Amino acid sequence: MADYRLTAAPALGGYHRAFDGVTLREMPDLALVALALPRGGEAAATGAIEAAFGTALPESGHTALSSDGTERLLRLGPDQAFVLMTRSTPDAEAFIAARLGGAAYVTDQSDAFVALEISGPRSRAALERICPLDLHPKVFSVGDVARTVMEHLGVMVLRTGQDSFLLLSARSSARSFLHAVEVSIANTG
Amino acid sequence: MIIDHPLLGPRDACEFVYHGDASLIDRPDPAAIDAQERFHEYAYLRDNPAGEHRELWYHEYGDRSWLVVTRNTLTHEISKVELARDVALVRGRGA
Predict the structure, then answer these.
(1) Are B50 and B74 in contact (CB under 8 A)?
(2) ipTM of this model?
(3) Which helix (H) or strand (E) covers residue B69, if one does?
């Protein structure tokens, strides 16, 4: 049998572009692992998550950094949570599963997503044209997360700073999503 | 139109999919003697009220929750938004 060696490639080839007041770049080495709480085992799962990451699973719409600052827990809904971290090797699921001891279901979602970071003083204005969420910092503060729709594409939006957002969308439509964001930036004058 | 999600706060209706009358939660008992007639009513017969209407909305581009939204069909005014899960549990459905 042939000895295949597969090398992971970023969905957008490591895209990085500076616009006037906005920088848009692909974040290639992010890993995303979904957490699902077993029915009837919610308390055991949240306890195991808190023990593993040194922080409680946050409420819907919020995120929490692990005690060592290397992972971020994202809570999108009552039954929907993710672990987001920088990890370039394809072992994110095993890495998280080993720390939860089977108390929650884990699924590696890393290769299903493309991650774009939009930053700079005009980033919120650029997103306002395609994002139906209210991104005012009083409503959507640093560390908040939400899933929404932009140009018919599902997107998870995480506010990473006062003027920076991480956008996670489907890898299969990565170029269409990039185009939507680029056009929105260009339309913001 | 804005739907005030019980967990997530106000969200644009474009994130949701409309799934019709909330009476769909009350699925008839398939073992009942008149099950055939009840299922015919369940599947095909709907009230079409001019005024307050309880309906199912699915947060497809959000947290994927099902909501029961009480909406006035004449004014689009939304008077109540509940998690369909809570409504179903109160009615003895689901677990």
Answers:
(1) yes
(2) 0.85
(3) strand B66-72
